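Postdoc handover notes: sequence design on the structure in folder B. Input tokens:
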């Protein structure tokens, strides 16, 4: 036995490397859109790494300290320590500004790639039986990613972020019966108090990232157990010494995990890192020096959440100021627009695989053009979120675009929010239904025109056993 064999044997008897080796040969379907999930994964990794760097210098405290750094206008001023530490990171720590910007852009790309990944899974029907559990875990991950971004936004404790964070505080305390308790837990009581930044910091660097990491581990475990979906094949496929029937969805055909897919993933990682580095190098982010430290006595003119929370802000802007009591519970507009409606949106997303129920397991992706009502619902949902997001910017739309007031645009936006999505969804449905009627029914999961597995990869193709034998 050679030395290498002996080393292998040593590890194999302890760690069951043999089983791991089987994983190395797993098949990954060669579909470009399947890389969106990987982009999200790599953004999370870069967020953790850049966050660790920032954690060495950030001070989660609002105690007043005297500023002594490179920004002339704050020299010698007493300001909250959190704000001072972010100034320090930005202007005095080597690479601090770059890493802070990279962290910022990675957060945006993280949420954006999750949204696109979700749309890809939706429109190709990859949520169907047996992948409903992974869709639900994914919905939780989407909500957590927004929570992570929101809690991070508050940390510099500058004027702009603190004002935007106070909106979140008001929504939290609006929850009937539980509001005060939740306000204590999340914000440490009335906002802004000295407890707020330590609370949000704890959520931002520990609780939410751990929950995301746990959710991701579950997401990947389910993915590996169930295997990917695969695009319908145009022909029978020869993979190694096996011939796979084109309609046999008990096996997956694709690139082996190692080395082919690993090489593709490495490229995706470096492209993600390069894109974020370019953004961090070229585009400034949240300019704390310009906003200045939080001043409870003033309110900046233009307060806006980040783009991915704009739809929630839109609900808040459009809903009338209501307030009524049901027994001991008080319901107000902030609760309905900022908590109840967004909660219902997430609930509807999580419940979707049970609305579009698929009795039989389906391992081929579907062609969105051959799923009239599901694609119609998807188009309507995208339109709904986009119009709600536009409503979140109603003051800009009114002032700067239309030269009028929000009182004039709000009823139009409300009508658009309620009317345009069903109309667009209906048109999509009618257009697709009037198209190719020779398509097989959805439940078979085979779309006649769907893209085939990449024929250029025939040499490197491997197959993976069905979902039942693993
Ligand atoms: C932190 C956020 C997320 C990360 C990092 C992530 C990552 C991934 C990766 C790497 C894959 C395999 C490659 C691919 O199909 O794209 C995957 C598959 C999947 N994801 Fe996600 N995901 C996230 C959020 C979501 C969300 C929000 C949903 C839906 C609500 C979702 C549902 C699914 C489903 C159903 C699959 C299996 C798809 C298939 O087999 O074709 N994921 N995810």
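Designed sequence:
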């Amino acid at each position: 036995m050679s030395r290498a064999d002996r080393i292998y044997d040593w590890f194999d008897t302890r760690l069951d490397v043999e089983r791991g080796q089987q994983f190395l040969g797993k098949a990954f379907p060669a579909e470009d859109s399947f890389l969106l999930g990987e982009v999200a994964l790599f953004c999370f990794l870069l967020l953790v790494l850049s966050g660790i760097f920032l954690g060495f210098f950030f001070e989660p405290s609002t105690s007043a300290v005297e500023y002594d750094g490179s920004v002339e206008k704050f020299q010698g001023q007493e300001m909250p320590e959190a704000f001072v530490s972010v100034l320090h990171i930005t202007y005095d720590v080597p690479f601090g500004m770059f890493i802070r910007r990279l962290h910022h852009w990675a957060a945006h790309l993280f949420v954006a790639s999750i949204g696109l990944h979700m749309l890809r899974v939706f429109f190709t029907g990859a949520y169907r039986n047996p992948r409903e559990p992974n869709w639900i875990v994914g919905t939780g991950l989407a909500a957590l990613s927004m929570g992570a971004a929101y809690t991070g936004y508050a940390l510099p404790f500058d004027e702009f972020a603190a004002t935007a964070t106070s909106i979140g505080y008001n929504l939290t305390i609006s929850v009937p019966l539980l509001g005060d308790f939740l306000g204590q837990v999340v914000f440490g009581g009335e906002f802004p108090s000295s407890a707020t930044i330590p609370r949000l910091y704890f959520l931002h660097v520990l609780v939410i990232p751990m929950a995301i990491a746990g959710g991701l581990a579950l997401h990947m475990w389910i993915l590996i157990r169930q295997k990917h979906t695969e695009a319908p094949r145009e022909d029978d496929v020869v993979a190694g010494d096996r011939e796979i029937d084109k309609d046999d969805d008990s096996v997956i055909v694709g690139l082996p995990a190692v080395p082919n897919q690993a090489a593709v993933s490495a490229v995706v990682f470096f492209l993600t890192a390069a894109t974020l580095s370019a953004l961090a190098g070229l585009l400034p982010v949240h300019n704390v020096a310009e906003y200045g430290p939080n001043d409870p006595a003033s309110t900046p003119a233009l307060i806006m959440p980040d783009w991915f929370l704009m739809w929630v802000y839109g609900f808040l802007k459009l809903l009338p100021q209501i307030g009524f009591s049901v027994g001991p519970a008080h319901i107000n507009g902030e609760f309905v627009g900022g908590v109840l409606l967004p909660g219902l949106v997430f609930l509807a997303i999580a419940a979707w695989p049970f609305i579009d129920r698929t009795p039989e397991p389906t391992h081929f992706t579907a062609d969105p053009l051959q799923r009239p009502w599901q694609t119609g619902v998807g188009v309507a949902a995208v339109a709904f979120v986009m119009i709600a997001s536009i409503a979140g910017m109603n003051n800009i739309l009114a002032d700067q675009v239309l030269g009028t007031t929000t009182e004039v645009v709000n009823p139009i936006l409300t009508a658009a929010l309620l009317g345009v999505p069903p109309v667009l969804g209906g048109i999509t449905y009618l257009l697709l239904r009037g198209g190719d009627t020779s398509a097989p029914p959805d439940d078979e999961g085979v779309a006649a025109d769907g893209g085939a597995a990449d024929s250029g990869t025939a040499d490197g193709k491997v197959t993976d056993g069905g979902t039942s034998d693993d």
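Context for whoever picks this up: The longest strand covers residues 252-256. Don't rerun without checking with the PI first.
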